[in-house]
Amino acid sequence: MKNPTRSALIVIDMERGFIDRESAHCIVQAEATIPACIRAVEIARAKQIPVFFVKRHYRADGSDVECTRYAAWVKGGKSMRPGTEGAEEPNGLAPKEGDYSIIKPRWSAFFGTELDLILRRLSVRRVILAGTTTPNCIRTTCYDANSLDYNVVILTDCTSSQTEEIQRVNLADMERMGAVLMDTAAFEGYHEHTVPDLAAGILADMERE
To answer: Do the beta carbons of residue 13 and residue 56 sit within 8 Å?
Structure first.
């Protein structure tokens, strides 16, 4: 597949266990971002940007549940087990042919997954993040991507937190770190020169010396 922007859209944890109001793990703002996330996926596909759906599933015995989440997971009915409603995605955010699906064992989409391997095979240099939750899974993925020399874009209206203040300060911190913030309206005009490849620029400077 051609990918002139050398980018990938990574949609994180947009599953009912994090979206539905009655879920023990509900992120308050997540449901409202569904239309923007759907639009971002449509834009990415139209631009030939590969789409990765990264989700969190839990084993029935709880052996892979985060220690800090285990009590809530048990109390909430052990949601997000494969085959349960909590593990399902909302309409419009299901993978299609050509998309990638990855199950992650912890917060970051990179931790213990094949994501980095596939991105490098696809010659991706820019990762565009969407999904929930901004202070946890989006943020850890952002920092891991930066550590791996990817250029990071965060779609602000496609990400969500428990409160507006948490959302604001975490986006601001990631922007200070070097992430590029934009909304889906700006993403409509995204092209190969929208976000510079910083690592490539550094290499070019080193080669000139």
So the answer is: yes
Q: Are 136 and 107 in contact (CB under 8 A)?
A: yes
Q: Tokens 């779609």, residue?
A: 155
Q: Is 67 exposed, middle or buried (0-12, 13-18, 19+ CB in 10 A)?
A: exposed
3-state secondary structure of 174: helix
Distance CA 169, CA 165 (A): 6
Cα gap 5→7, rounded to integer Å: 5
Do residues 127 and 119 touch, judged by C-beta distance below 8 A?
yes
Cα angle at 43 between 94 and 99, to 5 degrees?
40
Q: Hey, how many other C-beta atoms are within 10 angstroms of the C-beta on 39?
A: 19
pLDDT in tens, 50-87: 999 999 988 989 899 889 989 988 888 888 888 888 88
What's the topology of domain 7-208? Answer: Rossmann fold (3.40.50)
Tokens representing residue 142 in the block:
């952002």
Distance CA 149, CA 144 (A): 9
pLDDT of 199 above 90: no
Token pair for 52 = 């990765």
